[in-house]
Structure formats: structure tokens, C-alpha cells
Amino acid sequence: MGVLRIREVALAGKPNCGKSTFFKAATLANVEIANYPFTTIDANIGISSVRVDCPCLELDERCGQCREGARFVPVGLIDVAGLVHDAHKGRGLGNAFLDRLREASSIVHVVDASGSTDAEGNPVGVGSHDPLEDVDILERELTYWMMQILVRGWDRLARRVQAEHTKIEHVIAEQLSGVGVSQAHVRAAISELGLPSDKPAAWHEHELLDLCDYLRSVSKPMLIAANKMDTAPEENLKRLKELHYTVVPTSAEAELVLRMAERAGLIEYVPGDGDFRITGTPTEKQLRALERVGELLERFGSTGVQECLNRAVLELLGLIVVYPVEDEAKWTDKDGRVLPDAFLMPRGSTPRDLAYEVHTELGEGFLYAVDGRTGRRLGESYELKSGDVIKIVAVK
Ligand SMILES: Nc1nc2c(ncn2[C@@H]2O[C@H](COP(=O)(O)OP(=O)(O)O)[C@@H](O)[C@H]2O)c(=O)[nH]1
Ligand SMILES: [Mg+2]
């Protein structure tokens, strides 16, 4: 087994939108089903998971690593301190918050869709604040944050690029590498905005800002959790859904109720499901809370929390889940465990990439791979698909 490389999702949003509730719910899991450490790394960084259909559904028996065919693959989750307007200037927790986002590969923007908190997160009457404003504020803060990093020493940089005829995308990507911007991102942005790449010293400040805005949108993929859906006016949900984002109505609170009830042995609930089963003896009060959650599930299909995590990882980051095995016929490892591991890989990965992900030595000794479904040898350039069961053959 190689070291698990954890992909990260950050929860961002203003104070009181429900980030910590979402975080707590999403990182609270049934330890027994997990063959990886479901521990909280620190108060604000934890392990959550994406849910996929387990390939063992094609077998006669479940593999023992999943819950009735629902396979949970670990991802890191960061609860970023509440963000307010002008955070990039150091307001609120300011740059400490923004620095946390450096580590994240995608962002779930938790928005209080009920409109019951103002731009700073102070309680106001339900529906009295427009949640769309919060979306603008977060975008702006991230853009200005990148701008701040970019303009550090910009004049000197731009002049040097012009004098030495070096590539501007290289210099910008270097400057912004800490926030996850690549040369390809910069090249795309420059061409999209039609900036003269040989004359960066002549770029206007507003053009630099547009550049940062574009870079933000491509390097920090984001979706919106329209949280507090239980009390949100229809109109707010509708307007949020019209934005050019993936918008998932959520109730972090409902998810927390379900996960705690399951932990307490009161219900059986598989995260992401649209229902649960009472298996214990809840008190009158607990029963009423569960009934309320039940109604919500009926109305929305699920609490939305698992869907946010799934889409942030599988759609925004474009990752797939692949299952390496030692025995391609039985889908087991050397100890006979069925489908022992699940790896998240970037789309477009090859079997050799998977070998490296499992272990550097396996990657270096890679000879070929076998498809666990067909028993056929896979070509060097085979593109792995989500759900693939793969045997890797390497020199010993
Ligand atoms: N009605 C409702 N309230 C929620 C929901 N999620 C969180 N809250 C409440 O919103 C308040 C702020 O939540 P918290 O998670 O501390 O927000 P944070 O400041 O963004 O971390 C708390 O009172 C939560 O109980 C939800 O889905 N529905
Ligand atoms: Mg919080």
C-alpha cells in the first residue's frame, strides 16, 4: 500500500452560513466501515469521503469495504474560517483564511440560502438578506487575494520579461504557483482576454484584475451549497440555481442529525441516501427531529451534503475511482480481501499512473496491466475509467 494522497475540498463562506455544521456532519462517520483513519487531523481539517457505486455490486457478495454497495473513498475537508468583505485586506481572519484555501483543490461555497444572516453573518429575519450578494463577495475576495500576490513586484517583473523576452505565462504561474495556478491557466487567460503577451508592462490595472478573476475561476473550481434549504424561501433557491455554478440545496443540520442518530444507534442511514430506517428507540424529541428530517428528504431527495462532496471531487476536479487488485479474477489482494483499495485519480490517467499512485516501486517496475472485467491486457495508453478494476504486473 502506498501513502494515501488526499485530495482536498474547502468549505468557504461568511460566518454563520453553516460551514462548521457541514464539516462536522461530513467528517462524522462510522469507524467500523472504514479501513482508513477517519480521524480529524485538527479542528478544521478532517477526512470525509465521496460515495460511488462499488464494483462488488457485480459480484455475488458484497466486498466488506462498502455499505451495501455504497463505497466511500476518502477526501480531505477543510473548514475555512468565516470570510467577510475585504478579507484580502486582513479584515476578520483575513489572510489566514485565504492561506488555508491554497491547500484546497476545489471549493464548496456554503451560502445561507435562507437569507437569515447579513453579509457579515449577523442574524437577521429569514429572507431579508440576498444570498446572491454573498456569492459576489466570495468571488471578489478570492480575485483580490490573487491580485495582491500577483502585483507584488509586478512592474519590475513585467519590465524584465520584456527586456529578456521570457514567457510571461511562466513568470505569472511562478508567482501564483502557491495558489494552484498553472502555466496553462495563464496562457488560457491571456488569450481569452486578448492581452499582448509581449508587452506586460503596458497591461492596465483593470486588465490585471480581469486576469486574476479569470485565473480564480479556472484554478479554484467552486460549487454552491445552498444551505439551510429547510428554511430557505423557494425564490432564493431558484435564483441561486440560475447562477453559472453547480448549485446543490443542502441542509447541513439535517445531515448532522442523521449522522449523530446513526452513531447513537437510533437509525440506519447511508450518507447520500434519500431515506433512513429507525432501528433503535429514539426519545419523543428525537423522533420529532427525525420526522422533520424525513420530510425534508422527501422534499429534496437528500440532505445534499454528500452530493456536494461528490460533485466537488468527481465533477469539479474531474477525478475517477479506480480499484487496484492483485488477483484479477477474484478482485482480491494477497490476503484475499476483495477490492481492498479505491484510488482517486485524475481523468486521463493510465495504468502506469495508477501503479505509481499505489507505490513508486510498482510504477518504476511497471510492465503491463490487466482489466479485471475482461481479463485482457491493457495497452500502454489505455485511459482508466471510473470503476475500473485493475491488476498491475511489474518486475519484482
Ligand atoms: N435551519 C438550518 N440551520 C442551519 C443549517 N446548517 C447550519 N445551521 C445553523 O446555522 C448556524 C451557524 O452554523 P455554523 O455551522 O456554526 O456556521 P459557520 O459559522 O459557517 O461555521 C447554527 O446555528 C447552525 O445550527 C441548516 O441546514 N438549516
Ligand atoms: Mg464555523
Automatic annotation (TrEMBL):
Domain TGS: start-end pairs: 318-394
The UniProt record lists the keyword Secreted: no
Name the InterPro entries on file: Beta-grasp_dom_sf, G_OBG, GTP-bd, P-loop_NTPase, TGS, TGS-like, YGR210-like_G4
Alphabetic keyword roster: Nucleotide-binding
Domain OBG-type G intervals: 7-270
Q: Which domain of life is it from?
A: Archaea
Task: Quote the CDD domains the UniProt record gives.
Answer: TGS_MJ1332_like, Ygr210
A GO CC term attached to the entry: cytoplasm
What start and end residues bound the annotated signal peptide?
A: none
What are this entry's molecular-function GO terms? ATP hydrolysis activity; GTP binding
Q: Which family does it belong to?
A: Belongs to the RelA/SpoT family.
Q: What is this protein called?
A: Redox-regulated ATPase YchF
Tell me which species this is from: Methermicoccus shengliensis
